[in-house]
Amino acid sequence: MAQKLTDRLVRSLPPPRASNRITYDTEVRGFGVRVTSLGAKAFVLNYRVNGRERRLTIGSYPDWSVAAAREQAKELKRSVDLGDDPMGRRHEDRAAPNVGTLAKRYLAEHAVRKAARSYRDEQSMLEKLVLPALGSVKVHEVRHDDIDRVHREISARRPIRANRVAQMLSKMFNLAIRWGYRPDNPVKGWHRNPEDRRTRYLSHEELQRLGTVLEAHPNKACANVIRLLLLTGARRGEVMTATWDQFDLEKAIWIKLSAHTKQKKEHRVPLSAAALRLLRDMRSERTTSRYLFPGELPDRPLQEVKGFWAGVCRKAELNDCRIHDLRHTYASILASAGLSLPVIGALLGHTQPNTTARYSHLFEDPLREATDRVGTALNGLIGTNHQAKENLEHRES
User: Fold this and answer.
1) What is the pLDDT of residues 214-232, one digit of tens each?
2) Per DSSP, what are the bridge partners of residue 42?
3) What domains lie within the chain, and their CATH numbers?
């Protein structure tokens, strides 16, 4: 039987022996208070949508007073009359994916296509930096302030890492749009921390010292890894996982298959005479492994040269030099020889011109040398202020 609900009435309602009992209000149809067998009381609203009856819990008593719950019931009924389904929306919100779910799908469907090292790096960023802060937040509820907070907190310790996290999140939320999780990307507009591009190249003297150490080193395989990196400008992973069937030594070409390149595109690289000599020497001592640099197991490539490189750097007195700087050195030699940026980019396998643009400053010396040649050729053939003054003094004397 319906009654006008009051706080006094609700307080006095006894619990049923089992299950629950609802006492409905006489003022707002469908509004009532539910009492369980344990004595818990909560306000509810019954309504119908598309012929289906739904029951929505408004809130518990005494956290909600009768007056407040009744007003909320009236507001909900008005929204139902306008076509809303509050209970259905609540179910959708509960079922909506959170950032943790988005991260799992991102790794499984997108990051998995990247190189193994890149995949592990992004997995680490998600597990250690993103999910502890945002993992339980619904994807559609993430705001720019949330992203800004995460980026700011990481920036306090590792500013460059913070930029990488933001770049990854931007891609993640672009995919969230494609997957229908939300209509926009909350990462747009983030402020990048300043980054100074690394410009470490080996000088002529450093290359001489490096060559001397490599020549005397007993680990010939690792020494040849370093030599091939310098002679081709390839990435470390490309060299260490290279197989003999990728090389046509007669045509002097290295065909890097799409599965082995960072850009996931086939990259055909011409080989220099020095690179060919190195590869032919290596082939003459080839084992049964298909890899240029076999690991401990013949069917696996060499896994790591970091320790070898660290020791070589100490002996050759190469300060602050990473293995990737060998690739920079290769590019710097090309640039200093006057090769164009598109040619350098093609040899390095760059797909974006701005990636190669970091070497543009190295053109200064060959350009100065070229213009000096013009000055030398024209010296004495055309008048300059200095030459004109000398001629005038000669006539006056």
Assistant:
1) 999 999 999 999 999 999 8
2) 34, 60
3) 7-95 (3.30.160.390), 99-178 (1.10.150), 204-364 (1.10.443.10)
